[in-house]
Specification:
Length: 506
């Protein structure tokens, strides 16, 4: 009897080794990513792929059956603008990401990326995370390589050429295209022509251009003109990332002005898309509001503060030189220091002069978007979803953006149908990236999957508790392995590096 048990045990171990953990997911409502209405089915996963979708599939030998009792099954969500790579090697579970049902993040955003990308990819392949990583290559990163610290000017033709060579090499390594952060000081002094020339290199490898545009406040529509021109002259698909109208001067203009922006691009043959995160407040550095670095010009600073919603709407979650100020608004800090908000701003910039990108000593959360504009972007068919979030960041988007779209905007407020929301966070994003085997529930596709309850799914992260995990997402699978089951991370790390232009792996 004992020998028989041992034999059975050995067979089980061996079969797991040979077949991987094949799974039959029973009784799910399948949102397949196409945007069509859901249907009831069972889904079979063999190894890392979806092997069958059908009614009443019978369990096969060596198959683990998981009955989901009618919950929804969707392709794993794709985050089109993420900073979750920062600190990933200290947090390989990436719970903030996986528990949202996000299985792939696109990093290297706002003009800053890991460099060289090959080194980051190799490290990730040696020490995989729970989630998949894809990356853009950052424009400011290229500038830093070529122009060193002399960044507050336009690049010369020779420097642009050198950047193109580096960009070409990084695209070969698997980058999906070029990212820029033209509102940040290391990218801001680039001319439109510099961006067009670099975009041509991205286009030559089938990549695209994604941009935190030059001005997201009162001059935002000039920025949309600029990105459309970059798309037209660079002959490259373009994406306005974390799209927002972030100044009272442009509030409520999404409905009236955005259709014209998209139509003009279409007329000019430009593939213009965008991504959005579902919040009326952003999170960045204080420097971003005075883009030309004229930080000690009182008139410009006063205009910048007003243009971003005023000192009462700029909350400082982090200020290293005086940690007691963290959590106060710029208005409150000015009152505490008995100075004007303009003077308080200048004092904070001066005290943090030596900070570097990625190692900021100050941060700001600015509440300067209007809810009706955010909703318009969420509903628009040319807009995908992103978090712009980080692991353990100060903004709740890092742990809540995707369930917030599903629970708050789709279910509670009917801003868009659930199947459309899922399409925009799966298949549409996969197509933007040119991924041929992700973003859909179909036979042969990679088994990146999320099980959620449409009746309860919701974000719970807030500014007070930015890491609070969402509700209603019990199970998440990456490449055929569960990374979340029953709402808890499994500490499996099946995440992969997804390189641009590589044939679907078998
Ligand atoms: Zn940004």
């Amino acid at each position: 009897m004992k020998r028989r048990l041992l034999w059975l045990f050995l067979v089980l171990v061996a079969s797991t080794f040979v077949y991987g953990s094949d799974v039959l997911i029973k009784n799910v409502l399948v949102y397949d990513g196409s945007g069509k209405k859901p249907f009831k089915a069972d889904v079979r996963v063999k190894g890392d792929r979806i092997a069958a979708i059908g009614k009443n599939l019978a369990a096969q030998a060596n198959e683990v059956v998981r009955d989901e009792h009618g919950l929804a099954l969707a392709p794993g969500f794709i985050d089109m603008h993420s900073h979750h790579d920062s600190g990933i090697f200290e947090d390989l579970d990436a719970e903030a990401v996986s528990r949202q049902g996000v299985t792939t993040v696109l990093v290297g955003q706002d003009g800053e990326s890991n460099f060289p990308l090959g080194d980051f990819f190799t490290r990730l392949e040696k020490t995989p995370a729970a989630i998949n990583f894809a990356s853009m290559i950052g424009h400011a990163t290229l500038r830093e390589q070529v122009m060193s610290k002399d960044l507050y000017r336009a690049a010369t033709p020779e420097e642009i050429k050198r950047m193109q060579e580096l960009l070409g090499r990084e695209l070969q390594a698997g980058a999906f295209g070029l990212s820029s952060g033209l509102e940040y000081e290391n990218g801001h002094f680039a001319t439109t022509e510099e961006m067009i020339e670099l975009s041509k290199t991205a286009a030559a490898s089938g990549g695209f251009y994604i941009s935190h545009v030059r001005d997201e406040a009162s001059k935002v529509f000039d920025s949309y003109e600029e990105i459309t021109r970059i798309g037209r002259e660079g002959k490259v698909p373009v994406e306005i990332t974390h799209i927002k109208l972030a100044s009272p001067t442009v509030w409520h203009m999404a409905k009236t002005c955005m259709p014209g922006v998209f139509e003009k691009a279409k007329r000019e043959g430009v593939d213009l898309k965008a991504d959005v995160y579902p919040y009326t407040y952003w999170h960045s550095t204080l420097r971003v509001i005075v883009t030309d670095r004229d930080f000690f010009n009182p008139e410009k600073v006063a205009h910048a503060i007003a243009d971003n919603g005023g000192a009462a709407n700029l909350m400082i979650p982090k200020y290293t030189p005086e940690p007691a100020m963290a959590g106060k608004t710029l208005e409150q800090i000015a009152a505490a220091w008995k100075v004007t908000p303009v003077e308080a701003y200048m004092r904070m910039i001066k005290a943090t002069e030596n900070e570097k990108p990625g190692e900021e000593q100050e941060e700001v959360i600015g509440t300067s978007m209007s809810e009706d504009d955010v909703r318009w972007f969420i509903a628009n068919p040319r807009v995908m979803f992103s978090s712009d979030g980080s692991l353990h960041g100060a903004h709740p988007r890092g742990a809540g953006a995707f369930p917030r779209v599903l629970g708050r905007y789709a279910r509670e407020e009917h801003v868009l149908p659930l199947e459309t929301a899922i399409h925009k966070m799966t298949m549409m994003s996969a197509e933007q990236l040119g991924l041929k085997d992700r973003g859909r529930i179909a036979e042969g596709y990679v088994a990146d999957l999320v099980v959620f309850d449409p009746a309860t799914v919701i974000d719970q992260s807030t500014i007070q508790h930015p890491d609070a995990p969402p509700k209603g997402i019990p199970d998440v699978m990456v490449s055929g392995a569960w990374v979340v089951t029953d709402g808890k991370v499994t500490s499996a790390h099946p995440g992969r590096v997804i390189r641009h232009g590589t044939a679907p792996s078998k």
